[in-house]
Amino acid sequence: MEFQPVGLTGAGFTTGRKPLLAGNWKMNLERKSALGLAAAVRERLGERDDCEVALFPPYVYLDEVARLLAGSRVKVGAQNCCDEASGAFTGEIAASMLVDVGCDWVILGHSERRHLYGEGDALVGAKTKAALAAGLAPIVCVGETLAQREAKSTEQVISAQLVAGLAGVERRSMERIVIAYEPVWAIGTGKTASPEQAGEVHAYLRGVLAGLYDREVAARTRILYGGSVKPDNIQALMAVKDVDGCLVGGASLKAETFLPLLEYR
Ligand code: PEP
Q1: Given the CA of residue 230, which atom of ligand 1 is nearest to it?
Q2: Which residue, 28, 173, 180, 192, is the most exposed by fewest CB within 10 angstroms?
Q3: Which of 77, 72, 16 is nearest to 40 (CA)?
Q4: φ/ψ of residue 226, rounded to 5
């Protein structure tokens, strides 16, 4: 059943939502190019503290990238984690292991995990809790397919994903959670949601958060947009009131396309 969002007009809280730019490298790059790109991002960000930047390399490069970025303002995260803390789960990586190698963040419920590997809403929720328990900050992704958008079920789909992804998450843990709205039809396709489309969905998600928690949590939680973000469209997307940053795939793989995103202002 569709979750009833709560209107936020006049919520009146200081939101303090610092923009977050997250680069999801997916299964790309190799050791040398990963380290080179991380170093370039570190140099460009320097001591700037008007936005946060996090890079999400493949698992096997996390340790080295995190060492390279230690002490800098660029944070590191993983693209996924296991919902279990340890044990006989061949091929899986526990959230505590990610913390151990220097991760602060983890992406959960990315559409590629949902659609290519069959991860359902309940599993995403279990991973969120495992990540929080280990001390990670989860980016919980939600997004509708083109067919779902055309069937006008976007709100139903993303509210169900959000409610399940945050099931059992206490109010105080919401300080560490970031939501990413990533319409599946815009990921890696070159099609971007218009600022109006992104604005409508982000405002809706904030209403869902208000219903799940309260208006203060809704006003303080960062909601990123993801889906073919590029240097030529980031400014318009970041100008939308409820867009608090971007989760970037393809454009995060090269310094020429990622570094200009840091200058979106
Ligand atoms: C993503 O992987 O989360 C993503 C948004 O990819 P792209 O920017 O390539 O669409």
Answers
A1: 8
A2: 28
A3: 72
A4: -140, 140
For residue 126, give both structure tokens.
């279990």
How many angstroms is it from 212 CA to the middle of ligand 1? 27
**Which 8-state DSSP code applies to residue 184?**
G
Which residue's CA is the nearest one to ligand 1's atom 7?
A: 249
182 is catalytic: yes
Q: How far apart are CA 219 and CA 21, in angstroms?
A: 19
Tell me which residue has its CA closest to atom 6 in ligand 1.
249
CA-based radius of gyration for the chain? 17
pLDDT in tens, 113-144: 999 999 999 999 999 999 999 999 999 999 99
Segment 145-196, tens digit of pLDDT:
999 999 999 999 999 999 999 999 999 999 999 999 999 999 989 889 999 9
Pair of tokens at residue 155? 């709100």
The CATH architecture that domain 20-263 belongs to is Alpha-Beta Barrel (3.20)
Distance 228 CA to ligand 1 centre (A): 6
Q: Point out the ligand 1 atom lying closest to the alpha carbon of residue 229.
A: 8
> Which DSSP state fits 35?
H
